[in-house]
# Entry
Amino acid sequence: MTKKTGKQTIIFNNPPHILSYVAVGGKEEAKGPLGKHFDTIFPDPYLGEASWEKAECKLQYSAVKTLLEKSNYLPQDIDIMFGGDLINQCTSSYFAARDLQIPLYGIYGACSTMAEALHLGCMAIEGDFAENIIAVTSSHFCSSEKQFRFPLEYGGQRPPTSQWTVTASGAVLVTKETGDIIIDKITTGKIVDKGITDANNMGAAMAPAAADTIKTHFEDTKLDYDYYDLIVTGDLGKLGKTLLDRLLKEEGIDLSERLDDCGCMIYNIDKQDKHCGGSGCGCSASVLASYILPMVKEEKFKKVLFVPTGALMSPLTCKQGESIAGVAHAVSITKREEN
# Structure
């Protein structure tokens, strides 16, 4: 029996369960409205390490280690870890997995990576290729600035459209075991490119991809637009969220009352001077683990469409004048109904 419906959506016959989740972050994330919900806060941006890259590796390692302890699982209980980050060749994920000794698929979807990890993990479980998987991503403000823009010592001026890369990691344990939360549907996004070339305006580059995936999800599933209590993208920021709302309304879809964005949620944007808000692989992952999943568990939200977005660029392509394509993947998360 086929599990695919419509163009790009899969409906699981035996939905995988989310058993546990962990978010760790830095001092700026602690100052934001979700800071009190993080499992661990690291006030030292170096996390006691010698470099920003090693600090990010420790972020991801700490998230997974805490997740295992919280769930009473051992590393050998996990069949596969799907992990990714923004650093060249996903080294933060690889070094974290090296120390954890968990089998790893390293993946890259820019800021959409957490959704990609959940997609692949859920398909592995549904297909009986795994019983327990971990989806994890991370990002670090300083390592990302060093790679994609300028080292901090340069002191460059940030334009109003720019976003602040979140120093955080989020990890989620997905399993065949019965949990309070299930993932019942996923929609894989297409690459959408509207010709944006400004690396400091990622919200504009990603918003069309988010609109395309959300529209496709509702077309594929034939669900009413008020089906979800919350539709949360990540990480469009203030500008990208406004553009997404406009693009959807142009298609006759008004989700403004239930639409939010992880990049807008993680910081007090104006008070913390974060311009358009947060970004990075760790942004949507940590918002998911610190806020969204606990709210679903407590039935504050019974149905959530989680739609992380990614700006598919590199320092090289930007220097060559290439446009910034976007992608967004949707994950339908619901509270499990008691039989």
Remarks:
- The longest strand covers residues 17-26.
